């Protein structure tokens, strides 16, 4: 399937792209556009103004994805808490990890040649975050 | 000549009732540090983050049955821009001043109370800094006040 979003991925879009490839569509192909008018007809848009898979009712796009695709994995919702605060920073959740994730994502976007390259490096970072939070939730404490 | 700052504007109109979306919007604008230019018109210095944040709020306004549009603008006069930037700097300086005050007040408290205060004040400082687009001198003063308190707690028995 083809998926489309705005150019210059930051935390929410990078997290959504990772979620799509890992949990929704392993064959996902991403298209990056500057303007909503450039959206190809055959691509599913996300994290853009006025589309279904985007910010809604104070949720960030990552949370909208979890709801729309009924992904009720509690590790993903735990990551959603961090992504939400890194993206929106409205203190809806307690997420001390958020400023760190925000800094890492901003840094990666500075050293990545384009969005595809950005996703190639941010993907493993989310894999690691997922594993870390999965173990933390199992153990009931931070894994050593 | 210095290139003039670009701004992103959100123009909006929300129905008078219900009041919840108005209050939510107002809180979010405040958290972003947006300057109210007129009733229903707010501004932030343009960067990819500020533009995106205002775009999400535009969507929220529309979801609440209101009207919203996003504009990229430049002030036609330097004086006008300076007035807006100064107003934003003044507002943020006030927030830092409150923080400095709180750091000062907690000085005589028990070390447990001061430790909690350091955590809270650091968090507040971070959130103010995030919406501080034209840093006033109070920013450095606030940072120093919180760190001085942290230092005190660190050496306390």
Describe the structure.
Chain A is mainly alpha-helical and 144 residues long. Helices cover 52% and strands 9% of the residues of chain A. In chain A, helix 1 packs across helix 5, helix 3 packs across helix 4 (98-111) and helix 3 crosses helix 5 (115-139). Chain A is built from five helices and three strands. Chain A has a three-stranded parallel beta sheet with strand order 2-1-3, with no helix packed on it. The longest helix of chain A has 25 residues, at 115-139. Chain B is α+β, with helices and mostly antiparallel strands. Chain B has helices spanning 20-32, 48-63, 78-105, 111-130, 138-155; strands at 6-13, 35-38, 41-45, 67-74. A four-stranded antiparallel beta sheet of chain B has the order 2-3-1-4, with helices on both faces. In chain B, helix 3 packs parallel to helix 5. The mean pLDDT of chain B is 93. Chain A binds chain B through residues 8, 10, 49-50, 54-58, 88-91, 99, and chain B through 24, 28, 31, 48-49, 52-53, 55-56, 58-60, 63, 126-127, 130.
């Amino acid at each position: 399937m083809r998926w489309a979003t705005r150019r210059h991925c930051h935390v929410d879009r990078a997290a959504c792209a990772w979620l799509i490839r890992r949990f929704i569509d392993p064959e996902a192909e991403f298209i990056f556009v500057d303007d909503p008018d450039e959206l190809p007809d055959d691509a599913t848009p996300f994290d853009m103004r006025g589309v279904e898979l985007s910010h809604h009712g104070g949720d960030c796009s990552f949370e909208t994805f979890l709801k729309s695709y009924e992904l009720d994995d509690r590790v993903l919702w735990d990551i959603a808490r961090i992504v939400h605060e890194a993206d929106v920073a409205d203190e809806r959740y307690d997420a001390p990890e958020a400023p760190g994730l925000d800094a890492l994502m901003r840094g990666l976007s500075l050293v990545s040649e384009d969005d595809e390259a950005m996703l190639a490096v941010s993907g493993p970072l989310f894999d690691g975050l997922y594993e870390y939070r999965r173990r933390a939730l199992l153990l009931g404490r931070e894994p050593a | 000549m210095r290139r003039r700052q670009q701004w992103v504007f959100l123009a909006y109109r929300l129905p008078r009732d219900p009041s919840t979306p108005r209050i939510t919007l107002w809180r979010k604008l405040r958290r972003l540090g947006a300057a109210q230019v007129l009733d229903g018109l707010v501004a932030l210095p343009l960067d990819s983050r500020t533009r995106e944040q205002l775009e999400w709020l535009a969507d929220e306004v529309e979801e609440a049955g209101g009207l919203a549009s996003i504009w990229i603008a430049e002030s036609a006069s330097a004086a006008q821009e300076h007035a807006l930037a100064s107003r934003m700097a003044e507002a943020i300086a006030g927030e830092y001043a409150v923080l400095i005050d709180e750091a000062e007040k907690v000085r005589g408290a028990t070390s447990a109370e001061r430790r909690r205060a350091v955590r809270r004040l650091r968090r507040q400082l971070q959130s103010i800094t995030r919406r501080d687009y034209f840093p006033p001198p109070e920013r450095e003063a606030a940072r120093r006040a919180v760190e001085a308190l942290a230092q005190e707690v660190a050496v306390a028995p």
